[in-house]
């Protein structure tokens, strides 16, 4: 009965103060919503179990050594027995973009070449038709294809009669034998599936092709054992393929088994989750502090009532329960609104991303209010209830009656209440300082990446990828002939203004001496770097004389030369570059200007990108990138490319094409969403801090009204009183800001250890100075306003204040 009375009393108090109720509810709702949204977004991307029978048990080996991919030659030499020793069951697949001709139009689709057991491995039956069998894909058998639900609906209008129809993929006719269920896009974003004959693994045209493995570990095999066994076996088979001299410089691969979600983000899930969730929880904690502070202030307003109840014999438990009811009701209301708002925002975000990314989004990226998020909502609400309601209530109920009466009867502040106010301000300032400094650093990184994406010219440009394997490309000369011929042919197309090639070998280890090793982007080129708006700074460029019969040469970017040669000329210096599991010595013959963007420079200022360029004639890799630019005012370059490809003999070696402009715009849009999220969260955090400091300052000034009245009655000037109160706020402000700066410096040290000197010291200092100045100014203003209002009252009113 007493509990119901307390609930009714709390409801009456909240109804009498609607502005207070709405303000506190807004704070809690916003803080909880940010935390729940962050959890759901990151958890869905990184950790949420895949839907489907046994889907969560699927793992894939992630190679982190020098050669980061598996090839069919690796798989063939490892043998089925090696995989069977590790996996209870497994399947193989590799991605292959295909061109589907439909109603006179060409459409690029993401295809997946899979073993016949792929669908049974994923425990999924076709919606229409049949699964692949062991005869599908074999030599002499009619080619067949399975379509995704999305392709079936968009390109075939959902016709059930599509089964048995023939479609043209890459110039060949395929019979449609299956349509997969809605949402099925295994392993990530596949549009269709083509059968792969396991008997062809050892053939030359497949042995160098990249392949991925999906498996389920034996119950008796731990993940660590699987990593060790597969790495050892892979090291052994790769060493056997090397000569005795090459084995000396061989770099053994390492293996880490990951889920599909972790593989998709390069194993960074835990790092991303902890970082973003810590940021969101800090905002929630600050919302709890503000709510607790406001509720505590409300309890101080009723301190006479509380003191009288205690003096009349009310137990502390009874007093706490009455005070907790008010905060508990607000917490429940804020939590309920946060859950509803989270569900609505997740639906909007999911719809927006589905519309912009479409079928290119991983199939598990489906954001909605799930039971995991509801569980976290309960935990967050309990966390909020404890810090925002229980602790302030306990503090208010346990106040010494004499102290409370003294502090509250004449508008003067006791030592205990003053100390609590300073502690609250210090904690809030420290949290907001950490959030704003970290958020500013994060925004700087995002803007840096955006500059990198938008700086490189992509308008009207396309990048086509070829995998030059097979008998036609057995020798390096055959690869070189293809590249030179393809560039010439593309340049002659009427819709193409210029064409070139680039062989992106990725990040490679580079040794300048026995002790110094760095990882740098290595590119293969024919020497025409003008396509990327680069110029020769010193030395000479790469040309036809730099072939396999002559000394291996390399061009270095201007930033690399400045950062690694201590002011000396880089020309003539030798670099050992890791190529094909071994180090190969190259001589620097030229220095070129920096590119506006590259894969290594995600966090780097534009002047600090590092690239190395080797001659494609000396290092002809299988993967080749042909880049061509569309003539201004024309729209047919991509279609003309496919027409040329269909007339050539190279269609079988084509992998996929990328619209660089569309890709860059999509990337920039995603970065914009991230940047806006950081900025809006920072603004909300600043709002919380300002409101919290203002609330504490206003309460403190109000409780010192008697002191203010005495000072003014004795002739103190308003300016002097204002400065005095601001000085009292400076202590908590400086302590909190100092704590924030210490955490910021430690964060910068960790960040710098991860990305090196890609963000300069001046940037770190500028962020600290600008953010600290802004924060200090805003917090002083939030303390100045209530003080200024107080000194404008008549002294007689202040002396009579309750």
What is the strand tally? Answer: 21
> How many helix segments?
23
User: β content, as a range?
Assistant: 15-25%
Share in helix: 40-55%
Content-based structural category? alpha+beta
The global form is: globular
**Mean pLDDT over the residues:** 79
Indicate the low-confidence ranges by residue numbers.
409-413, 598-608
Strand order of the largest sheet: 3-4-9-6-8-7
In this structure, how is the largest beta sheet organized?
Answer: 6 strands, mixed, barrel
From the alpha-carbon coordinates, what is the Rg to the nearest angstrom?
33 Å
Distance between the termini: 34 Å
Domain MacB-like periplasmic core: 32-231, 430-613
Family: Belongs to the ABC-4 integral membrane protein family.
GO molecular function, one term: transmembrane transporter activity
Pfam family, one: MacB_PCD
Topology:
Layout (H helix, E strand, L loop, with lengths): L1 H15 L1 H29 L13 E4 L6 E2 H15 E16 L2 E10 L3 H4 L6 E2 L14 E4 L1 H8 L9 E4 L2 E8 L12 E4 L8 H4 L2 E8 L5 H18 L3 H4 L7 E4 L1 H5 L4 H33 L1 H9 L4 H42 L13 H27 L3 H9 L5 H41 L5 E7 L8 H17 L3 E16 L5 E9 L10 E4 L13 E5 H7 L9 E6 L2 E11 L18 E5 L7 E8 L6 H11 L6 E6 H44 L1 H9 L4 H38 L5 H31 L3 H5 L3
Parallel strand pairs: 4-9, 6-8, 14-19, 16-18
Antiparallel strand pairs: 1-11, 2-10, 3-4, 3-7, 3-10, 5-8, 6-9, 7-8, 12-20, 12-21, 13-14, 13-17, 13-20, 15-18, 16-19, 17-18
Helix pairs in contact: 1-12, 2-10, 2-12, 2-13, 3-7, 10-13, 10-15, 10-19, 11-14, 12-13, 15-19, 15-21, 15-22, 19-22, 21-22
């Amino acid at each position: 009965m007493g509990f119901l009375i307390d609930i009714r009393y709390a409801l009456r108090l909240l109804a009498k103060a609607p502005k207070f109720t709405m303000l506190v509810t807004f704070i809690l709702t916003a803080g909880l919503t940010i935390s729940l949204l962050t959890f759901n977004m990151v958890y869905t991307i990184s950790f949420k179990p895949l839907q489907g029978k046994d889907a969560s048990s699927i793992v894939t080996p992630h190679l982190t050594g020098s050669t980061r991919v598996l090839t069919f030659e690796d798989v063939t030499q490892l043998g089925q027995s090696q995989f069977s020793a590790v996996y209870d069951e497994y399947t193989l697949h590799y991605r292959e973009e295909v061109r589907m001709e439909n109603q006179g139009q060409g459409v690029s689709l993401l295809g997946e070449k899979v073993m016949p057991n792929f669908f049974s491995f994923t425990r999924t039956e076709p919606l229409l038709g049949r699964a692949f069998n062991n005869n599908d894909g074999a030599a002499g058998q009619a080619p067949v294809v399975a379509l995704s639900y999305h392709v079936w609906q968009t390109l075939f209008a959902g016709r059930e009669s599509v089964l048995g129809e023939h479609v043209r993929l890459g110039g060949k006719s395929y019979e449609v034998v299956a349509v997969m269920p809605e949402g099925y896009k295994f392993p990530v974003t596949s549009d269709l599936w083509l059968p792969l004959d396991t008997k062809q693994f050892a053939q030359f045209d497949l042995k160098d092709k990249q392949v991925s493995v999906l498996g389920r570990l034996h119950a008796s095999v731990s993940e660590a054992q699987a990593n060790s066994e597969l790495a050892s076996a892979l090291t052994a088979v790769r060493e056997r393929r090397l000569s005795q001299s090459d084995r000396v410089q061989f770099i053994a691969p390492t293996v880490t088994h990951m889920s599909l979600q972790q593989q998709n983000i390069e194993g960074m899930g835990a790092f991303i989750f902890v970082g973003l969730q810590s940021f969101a929880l800090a905002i929630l904690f600050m919302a709890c502090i503000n709510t607790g502070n406001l509720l505590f202030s409300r309890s101080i307003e009723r301190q006479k009532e509380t003191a009288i109840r205690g003096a009349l014999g009310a137990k502390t438990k009874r007093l706490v329960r009455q005070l907790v009811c008010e905060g508990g009701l607000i917490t429940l209301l804020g939590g309920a609104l946060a859950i509803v708002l989270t569900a609505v925002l997740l639906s909007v975000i999911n719809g927006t991303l589905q519309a912009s990314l479409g079928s290119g989004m991983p199939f598990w990226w489906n954001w909605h209010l799930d039971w995991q998020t509801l569980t976290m909502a309960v935990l967050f609400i309990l966390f909020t209830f404890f810090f925002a309601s229980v602790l302030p209530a306990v503090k208010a109920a346990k106040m010494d009656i004499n102290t409370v009466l003294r502090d509250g009867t004449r508008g003067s502040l006791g030592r205990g209440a003053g100390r609590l106010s300073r502690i609250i301000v210090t904690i809030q300032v420290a949290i907001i300082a950490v959030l704003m400094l970290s958020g500013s650093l994060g925004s700087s990184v995002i803007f840096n990446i955006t500059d990198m994406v938008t700086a490189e010219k992509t308008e009207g440009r396309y990048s086509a990828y070829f995998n030059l394997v097979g008998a036609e490309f057995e020798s390096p000369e055959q690869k070189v002939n293809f590249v030179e011929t393809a560039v010439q042919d593309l340049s002659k197309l009427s819709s193409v203004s210029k064409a070139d090639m680039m062989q992106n070998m990725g990040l490679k280890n580079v040794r300048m001496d026995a002790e110094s090793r760095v990882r740098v982007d290595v590119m293969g080129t024919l020497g025409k770097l003008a396509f990327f708006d680069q110029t020769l700074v010193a030395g000479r460029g790469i040309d036809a004389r730099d072939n396999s019969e002559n000394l291996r040469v390399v061009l270095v970017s201007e930033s690399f030369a400045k950062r690694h040669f201590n002011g000396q000329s880089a020309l003539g210096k030798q670099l050992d570059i890791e190529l094909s599991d071994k180090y190969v010595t190259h001589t620097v013959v030229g220095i070129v200007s920096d590119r506006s963007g590259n894969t290594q420079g995600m966090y780097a200022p534009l002047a600090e990108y590092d690239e190395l360029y080797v001659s494609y004639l000396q290092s002809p890799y299988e993967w080749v990138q042909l880049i061509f630019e569309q003539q201004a005012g024309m729209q047919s370059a991509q279609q003309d490319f496919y027409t040329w490809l269909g007339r050539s003999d190279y269609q079988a070696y084509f992998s996929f094409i990328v619209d660089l402009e569309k890709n860059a715009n999509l990337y920039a849009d995603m970065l914009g969403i991230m940047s806006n999220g950081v900025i809006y969260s920072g603004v909300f955090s600043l709002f919380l801090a300002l409101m919290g400091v203002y609330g504490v300052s206003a309460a403190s000034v109000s409780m010192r009204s008697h002191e203010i009245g005495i000072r003014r009655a004795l002739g103190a000037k308003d300016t002097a009183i204002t400065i005095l109160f601001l000085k009292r706020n400076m202590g908590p402000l400086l302590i909190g800001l100092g704590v924030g700066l210490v955490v910021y410096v430690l964060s910068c040290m960790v960040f710098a250890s991860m990305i090196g000197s890609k963000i300069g010291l001046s940037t770190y200092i500028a962020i600290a100075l600008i953010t600290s100045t802004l924060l200090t100014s805003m917090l002083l203003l939030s303390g100045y306003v209530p003080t200024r209002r107080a000194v404008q009252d008549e002294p007689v009113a202040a002396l009579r204040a309750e």
